[in-house]
Amino acid sequence: MQFNSYLFLFVFLPLTLAGYFGLYRLGRDRGARLFLAGASFVFFGYGNPWYVALLLVSALFNWRVSRLLLGKAGSRLLLACGILANVGLLFYYKYFNFFIDNLNLLLKEDWVFAQVLLPAGISFFTFQQIAWLVDSYRQETGAYGFLD
Questions:
Q1: What is the DSSP string of 29-52?
Q2: Most Cβ neighbours (<10 Å): which of 23, 109, 129, 145?
Q3: What distance in Å separates the CA atoms of residue 37 and residue 3, rounded to the nearest whole number?
């Protein structure tokens, strides 16, 4: 689903806004956040539902690493592992096909791997999560819950 599609503009966006603000006005702050998170997963997984699992696992991993960093001020090794995991994920989904194509040219090979489809917004959410880990390492974040 694209931001400029009729489905997004006239169905998804109005329903999401109505659901979120409706729950929020009823005093259901947690329900509103859950609704918004669910709508985000629906939007993200519209093209490929498998990417919802990818986003969820990535977010849970980074949330957990963040919590560990808050408990261990100055743990550079943990920060490095978190950043490497995120960069590895980004490399696989965004640059793996490019890497294999260039390796084939360099080595005059014809290695064929399944074409990796790029999830929408993977660079954005990956770099956001890296920034969150760095802020947690610097003790600049709080011990937020997963939905916060």
A1: HHHHHHHHHHHHHHHHHSS-THHH
A2: 129
A3: 17
The Cα–Cα gap between 119 and 35 comes to 22
Q: What is the largest CA-CA distance in the chain?
A: 64
Q: For residue range 49-76, what is the model confidence (pLDDT) as tens digits?
A: 888 999 899 999 999 999 999 887 668 9
pTM above 0.85, yes or no: no
CA dist 25 and 138 (Å) reads 36
Q: How far apart are the first and last CA of the chain?
A: 26
d(CA 5, CA 36): 20
Structure tokens at 13: 């966006």
Which positions ≥6 away from 97 have C-beta within 8 Å?
113, 115, 116
Cβ atoms of 121 and 44 within 8 Å: the answer is yes
Q: How many helices and strands (H and E) does the chain possess?
A: 7, 0
